[in-house]
C-alpha cells in the first residue's frame, strides 16, 4: 500500500531533440531541446522543425517584457472608500518596495493595478523575480504589502491573499494585456525551396492554414487571446524536462501564430505573452532537471534573471519548431495520422523487443 504522504518519482519519457540555432540577446548558438512527454510523436515533429529552422539560418527571438504578478483582495464599506484607498495606495510604491526588500534580495515592485467592483478592491502587484519563476516570491511580497495596507488603511478589510486578478493558472485576458512571466516573440524565415523539400508543403499553404485554422478556428471556438495549434504540447514537454510548474501551460499556451509569404518565402512567428519559467526554485533539485538546465546553459553564473530569460527564449524556440512542423503536416491530407500510426507501431516494436 502506498502511504498518502510518501513521496515518489513519476517516470515520464524524455528525449533531447534538435539542436536548433537561436539568435537573441540571451542565446546565440545552437541548443538542444529536452522534452518530457507521453506524446511521443512530438519528438520527431519538433526535431523536424528544429532542423528546418537551423537550415534557414536560425530562430530570432526577443523578450518584450517580464514580470510576475499576485493580486490581493480587500473590501471596504463602499465603492467610494475602496477607490479613495486605491488612489492613496498607488502613491506608496517606494514604501511598498522597502517592505519587499526586507525579505527578498531579488523581488522588485515595478507596477500596480486595481479593479474596483462594488465595495471590493482588487490589487494586482507586478514584480521582477530574478532567476525564479516567482510564484512564492510574489506571494510573500504580496503578504507583506497586504499586512501594511490593512494597518495603514483601517477602512479596508482582508478577503484573500489571491483574488484571481493575478491571474494564476487560468485562461484570462489580463495576463496577455498586463503581462505575467516572460513575453517572448520567436520568428524565422523559411526559404521556399527548404519549405517544399523539408516540410513537404508551400509557404502559401501554411499561411492560409494559419488563418483558417488558428485564427478563424479559434474565433469560432471562442478562444481567449489565443491562435495556435498546440503550443501546450511543447510547453508541457519543456516544462517537465526543466522542472517548471506544469500547470502554467494554462496561461502559457495562450499564444498567437503569425505567418506571411514574403518574397515567396515563409515568415513564421510565435508570440507567447505568458511564458512562466525559472532556472532556480522548486523542482530544480532533481538530477535530470539539473542535467537538462546544464545542457541548456542555464546554470551559469550570470546577472540575476539572465538564466531565466535564456530559458524562456529556448522554450519559445521549442514551441516554434513544434508548431511549424505540425502546421506543415496538416496542410497535407492524411499526413498527420499516417505519421502517428507509423511512430506508434515503431514504439510498440521496440517495447516488444525489450520484453522479449
Give a short summary of the structure.
With about 350 residues, the chain is α+β, with helices and mostly antiparallel strands. About 45% of the residues lie in helices and about 25% in strands.
Notes on the structure:
This protein has two domains: 14-65 and 182-351, 3-hydroxy-3-methylglutaryl-coenzyme A Reductase, Chain A, domain 2; 67-160, Alpha-Beta Plaits (2-Layer Sandwich). 43% of the residues lie in helices and 24% in strands. The protein contains twelve helices and nine strands. Strands 1, 2, 3, 4, 5, 6, 7, 8 and 9 form a nine-stranded mixed β-sheet that branches. The radius of gyration is 23 Å and the shape is globular. The chain starts with 13 loop residues before the first strand and ends with a helix. 45% of the residues are buried.
- What can be said about the biggest beta sheet? 9 strands, mixed
CATH class of the largest domain: Alpha Beta
Order of helices and strands: EEHEHHEEHEHEHHHHEEHHH
Q: Uncertain segments of ≥5 residues (pLDDT<50)? A: 350-356
Arithmetic mean of pLDDT? 93
Q: Quote the beta fraction.
A: 15-25%
Described by the principal axes of the CA atoms, the overall outline is globular
Query: How many angstroms separate the termini?
Result: 30 Å
The helicity comes to 40-55%
DSSP helical segment count: 12
The CATH architecture designation of the largest domain is: Alpha-Beta Complex
Structural class: alpha+beta
Going by CATH, the homologous superfamily of the largest domain would be 3-hydroxy-3-methylglutaryl-coenzyme A Reductase, Chain A, domain 2
C-alpha Rg (nearest Å): 23 Å
Count of discrete domains: 2
The CATH topology of the largest domain turns out to be 3-hydroxy-3-methylglutaryl-coenzyme A Reductase, Chain A, domain 2
| Number of DSSP-assigned strands | 9
Amino acid at each position: 500500500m502506498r502511504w498518502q504522504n510518501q513521496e515518489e518519482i513519476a517516470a515520464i519519457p524524455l528525449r533531447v531533440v534538435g539542436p536548433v540555432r537561436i539568435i537573441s540577446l540571451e542565446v546565440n548558438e545552437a541548443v538542444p531541446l529536452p522534452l518530457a512527454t507521453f506524446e511521443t510523436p512530438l519528438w520527431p515533429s519538433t526535431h523536424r522543425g528544429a532542423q528546418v529552422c537551423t537550415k534557414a539560418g536560425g530562430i530570432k527571438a526577443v523578450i518584450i517584457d517580464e514580470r510576475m504578478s499576485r493580486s490581493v483582495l480587500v473590501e471596504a464599506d463602499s465603492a467610494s472608500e475602496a477607490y479613495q484607498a486605491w488612489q492613496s495606495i498607488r502613491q506608496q510604491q517606494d514604501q511598498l518596495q522597502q517592505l519587499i526588500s526586507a525579505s527578498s534580495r531579488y523581488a522588485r515592485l515595478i507596477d500596480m493595478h486595481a479593479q474596483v467592483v462594488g465595495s471590493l478592491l482588487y490589487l494586482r502587484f507586478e514584480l521582477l523575480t530574478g532567476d525564479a519563476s516567482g510564484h512564492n516570491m510574489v506571494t510573500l511580497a504580496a503578504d507583506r504589502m497586504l499586512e501594511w495596507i490593512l494597518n495603514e488603511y483601517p477602512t479596508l478589510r482582508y478577503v484573500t491573499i489571491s483574488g484571481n486578478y493575478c491571474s494564476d493558472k487560468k485562461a484570462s485576458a489580463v495576463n496577455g494585456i498586463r503581462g505575467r512571466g516572460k513575453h517572448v516573440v520567436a520568428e524565422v524565415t523559411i526559404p521556399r525551396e527548404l519549405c517544399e523539400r523539408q516540410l513537404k508543403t508551400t509557404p502559401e499553404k501554411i499561411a492560409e492554414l494559419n488563418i483558417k485554422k488558428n485564427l478563424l478556428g479559434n474565433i469560432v471556438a471562442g478562444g481567449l487571446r489565443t491562435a495556435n495549434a498546440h503550443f501546450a504540447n511543447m510547453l508541457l514537454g519543456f516544462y517537465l524536462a526543466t522542472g517548471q510548474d506544469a500547470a502554467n501551460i494554462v496561461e502559457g499556451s495562450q499564444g498567437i501564430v503569425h505567418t506571411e509569404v514574403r518574397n515567396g518565402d515563409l515568415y513564421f512567428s510565435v508570440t507567447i505573452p505568458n511564458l512562466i519559467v525559472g532556472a532556480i526554485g522548486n523542482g530544480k533539485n532533481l538530477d535530470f532537471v539539473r542535467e537538462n538546465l546544464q545542457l541548456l546553459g542555464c546554470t551559469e553564473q550570470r546577472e540575476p534573471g539572465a538564466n531565466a530569460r535564456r530559458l524562456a527564449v529556448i522554450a519559445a524556440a521549442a514551441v516554434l519548431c513544434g508548431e511549424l512542423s505540425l502546421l506543415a503536416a496538416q496542410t497535407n491530407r492524411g499526413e498527420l495520422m499516417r505519421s502517428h500510426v507509423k511512430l506508434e507501431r515503431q514504439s510498440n516494436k521496440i517495447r516488444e523487443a525489450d520484453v522479449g
